[in-house]
Specification:
The protein starts with a strand and ends with a strand. The chain folds into two domains: about 70 residues, Helicase, Ruva Protein, domain 3 (Orthogonal Bundle); about 200 residues, Rossmann fold (3-Layer(aba) Sandwich), CATH 3.40.50. Helix 1 packs across helix 2, helix 1 packs parallel to helix 4 and helix 2 runs antiparallel to helix 4. The chain is elongated. The relative contact order is 0.11. The strands form three sheets. The protein has a seven-stranded mixed sheet, sandwiched between helices. Strands 1-2 form a two-stranded antiparallel sheet. It has a two-stranded antiparallel ribbon with strand order 3-4. The chain is α/β, with parallel strands linked by helices and about 290 residues long. The chain is about 40% helix and about 20% strand. The structure holds glutamine. Glutamine binds next to loops.
């Protein structure tokens, strides 16, 4: 039998430091997951012995992590906007950058007349449902449609809707390039679409390029294909005073501003930065 202390020590030998990880934190989180305990527990119980089977599993997972496999797919969880999301292979892991988008929308609603009325929100390319569920959680006057082309994404979003007991989110499986929306109109459309240029996907960290779904990353030749389509669809499904807010790559805000402005739909377009100081969210107001 090995102790918690020994496992953590062995773990950081296995998980080498790369540009995308923090070995000490990673191995703690793997062990927390296996023992169903928090990190404080590990610190306070360093001498506790761990069952053989659990230790074996720990070494396997540390090895896998060293190969770049995302930690969140192992633990099946990622916190986003203070909510715990179930994540699994086949869907993009929610990123802190995307919280900028959610916070922007919450702020718009809470500081305008949108605050006091019923709102219909559409989230295009919902993935795990992180954006849709957190908006629904923080905006009780909203009814959110979580749309994705991927069946796995829709299933994962459904798990997160259920897990968080969200009565005001529904899923919609469909392709934004072909889906025929009925007469339903939306007050807010949000999206974190795939925005990586096709040929640069291979340059992303191993974790992302190898293990995360291409479908959620590939934005076509110039990385902007989805923005053009989203603006086009928005033109058909918006209510009178609607808002379109999208996440962009750090160097795409100008291009996306141009797509928004060329559509002639918006009276005002804003760009917001993420916590790292990069342009991250473009919002158009009717
Ligand atoms: N933020 C992701 C990354 O750069 C990309 C997600 C996306 O294409 N929307 O790893």
């Amino acid at each position: 039998m090995v102790t918690i202390e020994k496992l953590l020590k062995d773990g950081i030998e296995i998980v080498k430091e790369r540009d995308y990880n923090n070995p000490f934190l990673d191995v703690q989180l793997i062990l927390c997951h296996l023992l169903s305990k928090d990190r404080v527990y590990l610190h306070l119980n360093r001498k506790e012995e761990v069952e053989e089977k659990t230790a074996e599993r720990f070494y396997e997972m540390a090895e896998k992590r060293n190969q770049g496999y995302p930690l969140q797919y192992m633990t099946n969880s990622q916190e986003f906007m203070g909510i715990d999301f179930y994540v699994q292979e086949g869907i993009l892991v929610p990123r802190p950058d995307t919280e900028t988008l959610v916070e922007k929308v919450i702020k718009i609603v809470n500081t305008t007349e949108m605050k006091d009325r019923y709102l219909r929100i559409l989230d295009i390319g919902t993935g795990s449902g992180a954006i849709a569920v957190s908006l629904a959680y923080y905006l009780k006057n909203a009814c959110v449609t979580a749309m994705d082309i991927s069946k796995e994404a829709i299933e994962t979003a459904a798990v997160n809707i259920e897990k968080n007991n969200m009565k005001n989110v529904t899923t919609l499986e469909g392709d934004i390039f072909t889906h025929a929306f009925s007469d339903e109109k939306f007050d807010i459309v949000v999206s974190n679409p795939p925005y990586i240029k096709k040929e640069t996907i291979g340059e992303l960290p191993l974790e992302v390029s190898v293990y995360e779904p291409k479908l959620a990353l590939d934005g076509g030749e110039d990385g902007l294909e989805y923005y053009r389509q989203i603006v086009k669809v928005f033109g058909e499904i918006h209510t009178k005073t609607a808002v379109l807010a999208v996440e962009t790559g750090h160097d795409q805000a100008l291009d996306v501003n141009e797509i928004f402005s060329k559509s002639g739909l918006f009276r005002k377009i804003e760009t917001d930065k993420d916590l790292g100081g990069n342009d991250r969210v473009v919002t158009g107001f009717l």
